[in-house]
Structure formats: structure tokens, C-alpha cells
Amino acid sequence: MNLHVAMVARTLNVRHLRGTGRYVQEILRNARAADHIRWTAYGHDPALPFRVPEPLLGRAEVFEFRGDRFHLWEQIGLPMRLRQSGAQILHCAENTAPIWQPIPTIVTIHDTVPWEEDTRGLDRFYLHDIQKIALRRCAHVITISESSRRDIVARWPFLADRLTVISHGIADEFFSEERAPLPAALAQALGDAPYLVYLGGAQPRKRFDWAMELLARCGRDDLHLVGCGFGAGTAPLDRIPEVLRGRVHFAPFLEDCELVSLYRGAQAAVYPTLYEGFGFPAVEAQAAGTPVLFSPVSSLVDLVGPLAWTNEPQDFDAWLASLKEVLALPAAVRAERAEAGMRWARCFSWRSSVEKHFQVYREVLARA
């Protein structure tokens, strides 16, 4: 018998996918007919693309609800749809959930960063007050790392006995031999220059300035830096030092196949984030055979593989020494470590992750 799961998929109803959207997309596309799972994936904006995988084992439905900016789509519109959908389980995969839960509800909390930011007014009330009530009513909570689990239990102790850790996987494109060309403008800007890749975007905790300082002080005037994760209008062009003009570039939003090519062509990936619920780039770089520099903080302590160079977050001299070591690696040593890194990264399987999600679904339904 099929299990009918309603999936909140607003992070697929966008122009460009980000981390949470990739998580939702991989759950949907890694389901197989033999799993006996049928989906209804819900989006909220008919004006934007709905990036559900094709074919989808089920159906996609986009509907508007007045008052979306006041969260009424989630709190009223979605529960009303669920009453008529025939779904048996609701999976809210994007950190928040409705208070009104007409069917057993599971929520994925990726990390507690939204609750730690300095939000004000309605947004703060919604996260700290409304969501506390919603979480108390949820049948189960999924999170993506032991680090996030500890943070969630510290904030909401009442969730400790209904909280499961399920790690993310890595997209199949990272293990493919096929290569996609880089976007033309980026390829033209780089030419044949060697480059580093920075992952993280404009958020202060991601530390783009740290990556630029590494570039400036590494002693390689021929080396460039490609910044990824910056949305439209967020690239910090005014912060690029004069000495680095012409050597710092910003990638557009990349499809997975393009991102793999960018990683594979890089001398190293630089990921100086101070906190992550999971930390895709730490695994993705190693899956692509590229050395990656990061600090073993929060969930990243579990992502130290054969191609990782790790240092304390504030020890710039150690970071710089690691970068110089990576840049000076003999080709044979680099190739050997790249092979080990790619083997290690295969442990992060989306199929395995999805099977664990299905197990949670069935346990929740059995309890209900």
C-alpha cells in the first residue's frame, strides 16, 4: 500500500535552488516505485518555476494564499489543503511548521541559525512563539547532524525524545565522469588562470573577507578567487582590495554539473564558515577530488576526510600555511589524496538518507 506524503516544497518554488531546496529535491527524486511512497509537493508562488524532479512519483501543486507575508500560507492555507488531499503524513522540510496539524506532521530543522539571528517584530514572534507551539505538536523532528541535534535539544528540551539525525547526501553529479562547461562569462574572466573557490555567500559568518585575505597573502600573484553563493546584488564588490582587482570573480547560480566542474578545476576550495548545520561544500569538494580548507566547528567536525585541511577558525597563520601546503602538493600526492577523498565522499548517499526518512514516516504513521 502506498504511503501518501505531503511535502512542503516552497524552496523548490524559486528561480535558483539553495541548500534546503536541494535537500527537498533529493528526497523527492530518490524515491523509487518499490518504496510505495506517493507525494504531493506544495509550492506557494505560481509566478516562479516549481523545480520538482521529473518524473515525480505523485503530483505537484502550487497555490497562493492571501497573507503569505504574515505566514498565513503555512498556518491556514496549507492545513486547509491537507484536509482534502488524502495525505497521511505532512513533512515540513524547511525549518517551520503550522500549529494546525490535521495529519501527523514531521518537521526538518536544519540548524538553529534562524532563531539565533537578531530578528524583530512579526518575524521574531513567528519563530520564537508560534513555532514553539508548532514544534510541541509535531509528531517527530528530523535534523541533519549531531551538532544541530545538540543545539535543538538545548533550545527545545521537549524535543529530545522525538528527534532523529539523518545526514545529507551528495548529488550523483559529483561522482560522474562527465564535465559541463563553466558559464561563459566566468570562463572568460578566468581564462587559464589557476583559482580558488570560496563557498558561502555574503553572510558574515561565512567570512568572504577571510578568503580574500588568504588570496592576498599566499604569495601567488597568478592565483584568482571565485566566490559562490552570492545572490543578485549581494556580491561585495566594494570590499575587494585594490591589490586584488581583476583576480576576484563571482559565479552566477550554478547547476550541480557546473559546480562540479568549478570544483574540479580549482587548486583548492576555501570554506571559512564559523557554523553550519551540515556543510555541503566540505564534502562536495572532496567528492570532486579537490582539497578543501575549513575549521572543524559545529557539524564540520564530522566532515574531515582525506582531502580536508583543518585549522582553528581564528588562526589565520595556520590557514595560510595550509593553503601554501596545498598549492605546493606534488601532482602524484594530490592525485592519491584525491582518489581517497572521492572514495570517502561516497559514504554520503542520498539514497541512504532518503530510506531513513521513509523509516521515520512509517514509524510516525504506526504511532498515529
Automatic annotation (TrEMBL):
Keyword Hydrolase carried by entry: no
Q: Which UniProt keywords apply?
A: Transferase
- At the top level, the lineage of the source is Bacteria
Q: Where is the Glycosyltransferase subfamily 4-like N-terminal domain?
A: 19-172
Q: Where is the Glycosyl transferase family domain?
A: 192-334
InterPro entries, A to Z: Glyco_trans_1, Glyco_trans_4-like_N
Matching entries from Pfam families are given as: Glyco_transf_4, Glycos_transf_1
- Give the signal peptide as a residue range, or say none if absent: none
**What's this protein's name?**
Glycosyltransferase family 4 protein
Organism annotation: Pelomonas caseinilytica
